[in-house]
Every structure is written in C-alpha cells, then in structure tokens.
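hey so i finally got around to running the thing on that chain from the lab meeting. sorry it took forever, my laptop kept dying and i had to restart like 3 times. anyway pasting the input first so we r on the same page abt which one it is
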Amino acid sequence: MKKNSRSIPKLSRLSAAVTAATIAFGSVSTVEAANWFKLRGTEPGGTAHTLQVWGFLQPTFVNYDTGLISGAVGKASPLNGTLPIPGTVPPRRSDKSSFYLRRARIGIRGTMIPISNDIDYFILTEMGQNGITRPDHNMTILDASVTFNQLAGQRRDDGSKGLGVRFRMGQFLFSQTSETLSNSTPGRRVHIWMPEATFQNALGRRVYDQGPGNFTGTKVDGARDIGLEAFDWTEFGDPNSPYELTYSLGVSNGDGIGIQNADRNYRYYGWLSFAKLFDNTRGPRRHDAQVYGFYQTGNIRFNNDLNGDGVPDHTQMNPATGLGGLSACGGVDACRITNAGNAKDLNQKYWGIGVQYFNKPFKGYGQIRFNAQYEKAQGLTFDGQQVPSALLSGPLFENFGLRYNPNGVNEGFYIDAGYDIHKHLGIKKRTTINLRYDEYDRNKGNAGRAIHTEQLTLTGEYFFHKKARLTLSYGWRNWDANDRTAGKIIGSSGTPAARHNGNAVLSGVGNRFGAQVTFIFKNVLLR
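ok and heres what got predicted. didnt touch it at all, straight out
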C-alpha cells in the first residue's frame, strides 16, 4: 500500500500492543467492565420505579482526510477520480466532512407496578442520522422488551446470591462482543468510532436475494434482533468484594430490527463471564476485572446461484480485472425472478474472547481502564457495495448491489486503554485520555477480496457535567489489499490485478477527526 501523510504512525503490532498496555497499567474513561445483562434487562431491586424517561443526544462533526481513487486499471478504471466509500461519512456516504446528529435516542424503562414487582420493561427509540434510521430517517424502535424475574437466583443466608434464570423477550441487544454491549449506553462510549472488526462483524442488515443485485432491503440492525434470552448472574465470596459469574443463552429470528422470521432459520447466542468486583461500586462504572467469551451461530437462506449455472454468483469471471461480477447472469433482474429456487442455507458464526479492567488502585491517582478483545466471524460474509466508489455506487447500486462470500473468514482484535488525567493537570472537571489500537482482516485468505486494516485512535474527553461531555477523536488508518493474489500481473511491477486495483481504492482511505458532544437526560415520572 502506498504510504503517505494519512498513514498510521510506524508501529509494529507488538509495539502498538505494548504501548497501549503500558498506558493502561501505568497511567480512564467511561468505558469499563459492567454487567450489561443486569443493567439493560432488569431494574434495581428495592428502588424500582414504574416509569423512567431517559435518552441522549450526540451532535457530531467528522472530517475524513480522504484521497481520490487513483491508478485503477481495466474495468476498474472508471473508479479513478472518485471517493472510496470507507473514506466517506455514513450514512449517506457521499461526502468526507459533515455536521450531523449522529444519535438521538429517547426511551422509557421501569417495573410493571402494580401488575408485578418481578416484571421489568425496556424501550428505546432512535431518531439520529445513521444506518438504523435509513433511508427515510424516521424514528425507529431499537429496543422493546420485557424481562421476567420470577425464577432469578435468591439471596442466601450468608449474603451470597444463587444462580437462577431470568427470561427477556422482545427486540433487544443480544449477547455478543462487549464493545457493542457497552456502546449501547452513552455513559460507557469513549471513542467516537468502534474498532473496525466490531463495526463490520456485529452491525448487520438483512440482504434479500430476490431483490436487484442482492439489495439490502432493511436497516442496519445495531446488533439487535427479536427473540428470547435466558440469563442470570450470581455473586459469591467476600460480600464487600465478591466474585461474579454471568451467563446468557438466547435464540432470535436472525433477521434484524422489526422483521419477522423470513426463512425459518434462527440464530443462537451464548455468553459467559467471570468478574472480580473490587469494592461496593455498582452500575456502569463499577470497579472490577472481567474475562468473557461470546458465541453466536445461525443459518441464512440465501440464493448463491441465481442463474443456476453451477457457478456461485460474484465469481471472478474475469480475474484479470480483479473485479467481481454476477457469473453469466449479468445482473439482469429476470435471472433473479425465474431462478430463485436455488437458495440454500448458508451458515454464519461469530465468536470472541476478551478482558476488561476498571479500577482506581493507587491513592491520589486517577482511574485506570484496560480492554482487549479478539473476535472472528466465519461463513456468509457481505462485502459491501459491488462498486467501491461513493460516486458510482449510486447509479450502479440497483444493478450490482452487494458482493458476498459464502465462506468468508473475518477476524480482528483491539487493545484499548484510558486514564483520568484532570488531577495531574489541575483541572477540576473530569478529563480523560484514551488510546486504542485495532486490526482487522476481512475475507482472510481470499485471493481476490482480502483486506487488511490497522487503526490507531487517540481520544480525549472533557466532562462539563457527569451527564454532558465533549469527545475529540483522531484516527490514523492504514488499509490495504496486499494479501490478494488473483488476476493477471499488471505491467512490470509484478502486482496481481486484484491487489493493484484494491490498493488503488484503499490508498485513498485516510485519517479521520471527530468532535462530538453528548447530553444524557433521565427523569423518573412514576414511582
């Protein structure tokens, strides 16, 4: 990949990891370990209320230092002079700089008093400018669930809590990567952007194989679905500093926000975590150390051979260009209508493991945060738009739509650290410094589609109030297609066409800057 002023600072993978870890353990922010099943699915015992209105706003400005696509050859040459899609502002993906209302969420939660003290509810809506509200930007229901606590673990005589089961039913954020669970709450969100692996693996949308070009017929699901979850947690040991074990098992439609089961397949979820609570702090900012793992799997019924020629669609029929294309069918809608009977169940798996730490171990010093996670997604992978140009994807999108890989392998990791610095600077208001390094390999091992990303994100936060803060993030990004080997050799460089054209697009994906203000509000209306 061509190196320029937009490239990530020269850090090896090892040095980046050591740098982040050193900051974490020698030097926080609002992201830390917490029990998200407890915080989002239940109400606190003894202080339950009937109706609490809550929500938050996040007006945002972002600027992408994006270069134009340059040097593409063959059938990819029309891309030259246009912006690469990853270097544009979502959700419109037409510009590289913009003010916008990134999130605007309002919801209600509480206990169904006087019906029952053991039934809790949680409702949250989204009105911001993002993939969840596209294309019409109307208000969308994110969460709408009811939790039944009748069989939850009971307190023992020694003060410890047994392990039982609670049932949550409706539309909500299912158990998966800790980053998506914590990002669902503004008090925990630090960096403006997610790690690339989580952003691409966890936030999905349903794709319809009978629409033009496998057009995405739904909104981004925000890692949510409709289904049923069984979960609970137990505490044991010293009541002033207990251990905690949490589990979750779930089943959902596997189809996203507001969609009934479309293919008679379901998605299955699992979560297991073990934590050490250091003191009596509770809630989203409790002091603890935690290890966790998550797993989900399910089939999607998808037509991978629309014209029935025995060759998977989007096979590189002309590998010399390094571009995909519908095999033989050519993107004609009639192929999709008359040959829709070739659909098959294609599997998806998504799993990961991670560690979290949040504490104030040294008197007179600030709080320390450290997060690290590895994740992997396997199976049916949607690659993004067939034409990777912000300008050209519009008119071509209805004909070519999305690329996909039935056997994709996508893996990545991140290391994230933070520290409260305001006391050292003589600042009265809380101020944090945060550093995260992440890598992601999309379609790893695929000769024509592999992409590698490296990102280093520096974020500072200034709290005007515990419910209002300013966040500044700067991200160094390095994206390349250097692992591709498909296609004929271009010129005398010895570079395969897929690699050459891939890097022609990705070399324009530059650094980015974001400024975001967060306002959180809540008010108990009925007790």
